[in-house]
């Protein structure tokens, strides 16, 4: 595009953390160097996953550290949005590699995305979602390889829509969506499927935004697919 670029390490970008290496928390970001370079019409490339503590030691953020860096810098700069580009073009209603009927979500709330991240969805790390929610920075997930519309993670005031079904490890399935505790028909459908498939449950928990079912034995992917296809509109 004809613009000059400059690369900055985490400490050059002013990212100050606590002293917990490998899982450091960002304390503040001094954006003066970033702003100076932007004012000179430069594209600023910042190394993710790292910062510096008060002893001038380099620290790292742990898993998902680059996502965390991106949203934190966006918050510090009071950016309108933060775009996260990866090999997927958004957040889906279930794993599209396992279920051909998986639907891409155009929008979901911070709370819903946080539940999905905590349940093992790999699109966004939970720490970056927490920062986005705290500073009200919409996070838009898009693909590096195409220009298709992505998924927007932001505030949703009130909604009662099931967003996603996630299978974690070997014996738990979670259904995420705002106001799911009031969606009696969806809860009944899930229970009917479990009864029909003759699966033994250990726990069935419902919160404001998640149904979580823990099973006694390994759950086949066909159960995940059936629940997804019968409750996702």
* Oligomer status: single chain
CATH topology-level name of one domain: Alpha-Beta Plaits
Uncertain stretches of 5 or more adjacent residues: none
The amount of beta strand, in percent, is: 25-35%
CATH 2nd-level architecture of one domain: 2-Layer Sandwich
Summarize the biggest pleated sheet: 4 strands, mixed
Overall pLDDT: 91
Sum up the overall morphology in one term. elongated
What structural class do helix, strand and pairing data support? alpha+beta
Classified by CATH, the class of one domain is Alpha Beta
Which value, in Å, is the CA radius of gyration?
Answer: 20 Å
What is the share of helical residues?
A: 25-40%
Task: Lay out the secondary structure.
Layout lengths: L4 E4 L6 E3 L8 E4 L2 H8 L3 E4 L3 E3 L5 E3 L4 H12 L5 E5 L4 E2 L11 E2 L1 E3 H9 L7 H10 L3 E5 L7 E4 L9 E5 L3 E5 L7 H14 L3 E6 L3 E6 L5 H11 L2
Parallel strand pairs: 1-4, 7-11, 10-12
Antiparallel strand pairs: 2-3, 5-6, 8-9, 11-12, 13-14, 14-16, 15-16
Helix pairs in contact: 2-4, 3-4, 5-6
List keywords for this structure.
4-stranded mixed beta sheet; 233 residues; 6 helices; alpha+beta; 4-stranded antiparallel beta sheet; Alpha-Beta Plaits
